[in-house]
Design a protein that fits this description.
Blueprint: H1 8-20, H2 23-30, H3 34-48, E1 53-55, E2 60-62, H4 64-91, E3 96-102, H5 104-121, E4 125-131, H6 138-141, E5 145-149, E6 157-171, H7 173-179, H8 185-189, E7 193-198, E8 203-204, E9 207-211, E10 214-218, E11 222-226, H9 232-238, E12 243-247, H10 252-257, E13 261-263, E14 271-279, H11 286-298, E15 306-307
Length: 308
Amino acid sequence: MARRFDHLSDAEVLLSVVEHGSFSAAAVVLSTTASVLSRAVSRLEGRLGAQLLRRTTRSLSLTDAGRRYADDVRAAFSQIEQAEQAIRSTTLQLSGKVRMSVSNSYGQQRLAPLLAAYARAYPLVELEVDISNRVVDLVAEGFDLAIRSGPIPNSSLVARPIEVSPLCLIASPDYVEAAGPLSSLDDLARQRCLAFIRPSTGRVIPWQLRDGGRDIDWIPPASVTVSTDALGVVWLAEQGMGIALCPRMFVEASLASGRLVEVLPGLGGRTRTVSVIYPAHRGLSAASRALIEMLLASCPVRPAAVAH
């Protein structure tokens, strides 16, 4: 039977030229000459009957057809790489390095036991964990995956939800006793609210509430604001400084011990989703895939991947 894909080496040449920006730069990486690579791309264009690259004496760029072809081929090569890694992972003990980013709140409250279990299962894998509220660029900064809460706006990322937690309003028992009866949003507006400032905008993050069955994004009249670490509002609430809104998963222990109590439950009902995210078009290592699967298996939510 004739080989159907004997031109794949030419497709790899195209991707390398695009990645490195020129035939000469790609030639250095591939240990060949620019003319050899130019002939490979021309051969590919002849096979497809379409121009893939616009060439000038100073620059080159993909045509519309070339962009579509390069995206599809890149995705196909990624799938091949994943298939090979999956086979290797069944016969070899996992090794290598996984770089991940996670927010302060989730890293401190939920992640440590899982990472400990992962380290026991795969002792040869080196873990590098960036615990901060800085929104990293996974591709540009070389991260394999990240854990983030809320919507994921980047269309080049895959997001797989791992946990969904109800939002709740909380305060210390002493604060509630001093505040008196609380029954409505109007009552809340007259209280001391502990708000978190979004680092990227410098603005207070709206509270996601549900009033009378209607979802509202309410800007709290903040008496105290916290930046950098979202768990700061929880610590301040425990000291009686006001009311805070946070995912229940971060205050379960404080509610159980009585350090905090839930207030105005009628304004609850909204949820916060935590997802593991990773680049859609970059092949994941077997070690990264194992960590993602462990995250999914250990948490109560396991929906399908969502490409944004």
